## 1
Amino acid sequence: MSATPETVTDYRQSLVLHLRLQEVPADRIGEIVAEVESHVAETGEAPAEAFGSPREYARSLTDEHRKPPRWWTATTLVLAAAAGWLIGQGAFAVLLDETWLGRSGWLWLATGVVVGIPPAYMVSRRSREVLDPRTGRPLVRTPRWAAFTFYLIPLAIILVGWLAILITR
Amino acid sequence: MDDDIPTEWLRAVLPLAVLAAVAEEETYGYAVAQRLQAGGLGTVKGGTLYPVLNRLEAEGLLTSSWREGVGGPGRKFFAVTPAGRDHLLRRSAAWHTFTEQARSLLPDPRSTR
């Protein structure tokens, strides 16, 4: 984003994006954005005039909010992948009424869910909606279909796989 | 103040000056900026001020709360904590010692000698 956002709404959207990229927690993003808007409402300045470009301002706050280390992201990914694999194997075993590695599909399914709890928590924390501390309402609207698609795609993959196996058997 | 204050000087004294302004009375960002300007520190931009306020809050020296503004969208008020008041007293004393020592090292332009 090279152009300096002129309006408060443009500035808000751009600042939220850049703070997200710095992985600042959602509640802090809400505070930071509300501070900017409340301040310029009093001074009459353009946000970029008082706070610099959204990108610069978001970066200047990184000594306050350090990005999580790489191993943290890597651990989240590995756990999520393991959970997905176990749930997939368990679900197929249950749907086809078979065992996997000599154990019941339900056992694998449950193991997958347990393994999936920490990464699910980490992802949900990172993607939590940004609320305006002044009103308690969301600062930026998230489209409803976003969450829907998030769950629909893995479910569709399992169903299609199951149907394919049933048909080819 | 006719000369521009070097940014390094401002950066050094700003946290303490902001803490002092909030310790005087519970107040909000823009009023702190006005207080600093009236005190001779020049225009402190929002992008400089709020990170300082937030750092002081993270260190437990200030607390903050949002209040309904007069016709506006709301203001974030800051209040000093007992730890903040204690910190302000100790660091102010240290600052005065420091500036007096630094002063003795510098030539005095008003000196007639």
## 2
Amino acid sequence: MLDQIQQLLSDQIQGISLEPIPHSTPAGFIIPSANIHAVCELLHSHPSCYFDHLACLSGVDDGVEANTMEVVYTLYSIPHDVHLSLKVVLNRAYPEVASVCDIWRGANWHEREAYDLFGIQFSNHPDLRRILLPADWVGFPMRKDYEEDTAYHGMTIKHPDVLKP
Amino acid sequence: MKQTTYQYNDQHLSVSEPLKFSEKELKSEEMIFNLGPQHPSTHGVLRLEVITDGEIVKEVVPHIGYLHRCFEKHAEKLPYNQTLPFTDRMDYVAAMNNEWAFAMGVERMLGIDKDIPKRIEYIRVVVAELNRIASHFVAIGTYGMDIGAFTPFLWMMRDRETILRMLEWVSGARMLYNYIWIGGLYYDLPVGFEEQCQKFCTYLKPKLKDVDDLLITNKIFIDRTANVGVLDKHLAINYGVTGPNLRAAGMCYDLRKVDGYGVYPELQFDVPIGTGEKGTTGDCWDRTWVRMQECHQSLRIIEQCLEKLMTEHKRSADFDPRAFVPKKIRPKEQELYVRAENPKGELGFYFRADGRSDIPLRCKSRGPSFSHLSVLPEISRDVMLADLFAIVGSLDLVMGEVDR
């Protein structure tokens, strides 16, 4: 099935480079970030795959050394019973990728969460606000190099008794 | 460093959790008001910004994050076995199911998921299905109370308490168990549990019938919930809605059947789906009815498992539920997405391991309630304000899982 999807994508989208994600369950491809919207649209609507369920959209920070961030899309096709992972690798300084909200509307909140915790910008997102944290929170806590502020609204955040890992 | 206390300022609410809509954008006759986060009908700390025209709801904006406890950040700092108790606190009315999903993911990463002894697998199904019934009881009971029926709530809490007592007997805790471990269980079932559980199943069946008569097929309840909050099948899939809410929309989709994890392929059970019997397919009544039917199916599953646990996979002196618990949990370098059917829907975990440490690089949890809440603005446009609570209740949200 994975070969068929690869064939379909390279036939329909010109000049796309598809690299398999190493050691991934479910298996999938690393997609250039410029192509992600076209790829998702094709996979969602094409009758041979019909990935109608966006199970999970997860931001990942690879850390300062690798200097990249990733967005991982876990797709599932209910009629065909097929799993697929897609991954885009982003520049850590300006992490930005096209939103897939217009394809799966459920992506709206998942993308807001990735923006909230990682600072990944989703272009063309209709409502990109912080979702879990307060709107005036400083920084993106799930980044590996995040340092929390000392206080929030006069409340101490860094408690002196907290154990360092 | 000196610990400081909160200093009150009028501006704090408006800058930390501002409204999405402003008063200037409103048309004449429209108004914005705020529901929650402390409101008995919102099932936890859910805050809704509602724009109404008279009694008609024009727009709903959920504001979440009041119960955010940084699960994912904690998971990046702790070894897998120490993260397990945190998963209990996500969907805190169905902790066993959360633990099982997490443990299953780590077992798959370690490659030991096929080696788990059958007795352990059957015990896991028993406790998870018991917890599923308890979770559905909370959902149906509080839903009845939301829309004005108080007696069913008391009945269901009474029977749920029996389940919690039994799970306490098993694990030592009433709600947050830490019973299912990676590669095994905390303890074997206590002596006499199987017989007690069978007695309980016999006791519960007529009680389910009572609730059916008192609440589900009650004319007042039907009038209140049928044709309210209709969630279309295609819209539901597009929003990532799963579990009973999706099945009520007429979609036969149950991960216990689709993925067949654990010992579910060996067990006989049906997947109830909504048919629009009292109104439209996917309305509030269908969602509640599906939950009620699932309780019957869960009882069927439990009885089959108990049968196996008393015959084929009987308790023995040399059985050690911790025999396969790994001493060191260090998965190879990989990414893995695992999913399981929780009482609320699909609970997924996305793991990233680097192969060099006992701590995951990333552990994202995909809670079903998160997706269910995101569909709320879509299905509660142009409904009466009183129906908004009927819709919120019927989605069976647990804020612990939405906010994590």
